[in-house]
Write a structure and sequence with these properties.
With 219 residues, the chain is α/β, with parallel strands linked by helices. 60% of the residues lie in helices and 11% in strands. The longest helix is centred in the first third of the chain and has 23 residues. One of its GO terms (cellular component) is cytoplasm.
Length: 219
């Protein structure tokens, strides 16, 4: 079984991944954040520094590389949950291209590498996730949780419009672009799976129910 958890920055992917992983006995592969040398530079550099050092492009390559390694490890262990996926990485790359932070040539290079990785995945025993748990929330909830998380490099007010642009396109990405698996949408405006046991139990119950439905469909 392979599950991916998707959603906006700070919406609660790691917490949901941990809760579902523990409940279902799945190993969790978290997004490379705390050990990512480029992420703080991406958030804190000036536009001129980003242009000179190509931090947005380097960041997307770093995520692509670490995510692909996580996928291979997850497939090897057979039962896993991934905090984000390659499919979602491409969404971030396109947003940064739209903003002019990634050039046309860089996006072509990124797409070529991604296509090669997807071809390799097609030859693996598990070619796609069984389920995508999409965490949906209002922009106010996203920003509140981002501030509560307290990563200093994420807090600058100049980043708010970047966050808003990412947030605004997420539903379209899920509904129109993501085709790899069934999707379970979870409204994070109403849930606190860390501090509220009822919310935690509701989440697990719904994930199990969705997986049981998928098993019946493929039986």
């Amino acid at each position: 079984m392979m599950i991916v958890v998707s959603g906006m920055i700070s919406v609660g992917k790691s917490s949901v991944s941990k809760a579902v992983g523990e409940a279902l006995g799945l190993e969790v592969f978290y997004e490379s954040v705390d050990d990512n040398p480029i992420l703080p530079l991406f958030y804190t550099s000036t536009p001129e520094e980003q242009e000179r050092n190509r931090y947005p492009f380097l960041l997307q390559l770093h995520f692509l590389y670490t995510r692909f390694n996580a996928i291979k490890q997850a497939i090897a262990c057979g039962q896993a949950i991934l905090d984000r996926s390659l499919y979602e990485d491409y969404y971030f790359a396109k947003i940064n291209h739209k903003l002019g932070r990634i050039s046309d040539l860089e996006l072509q290079i990124y797409e070529g590498i991604l296509a090669s990785m997807m071809e390799e995945i097609k030859g693996m025993p598990k070619k796609a996730p069984d389920l995508n748990i999409y965490l949906k929330a209002s922009f106010d909830t996203v920003m509140k949780r981002l501030h509560m998380r307290g990563r200093e490099f994420e807090q600058d007010e100049s980043l708010v419009e970047y966050y808003r642009l990412l947030w605004a396109g997420y539903d379209d990405w899920v509904n129109e672009e993501y085709k790899a698996s069934d999707v379970l949408i979870i409204d994070m405006d109403k849930l606190d799976v860390v501090h509220n046991q009822d919310d935690h139990d509701w989440l697990i119950q719904n994930v199990k129910g969705k997986l049981e439905t998928l098993e019946l469909k493929t039986a």
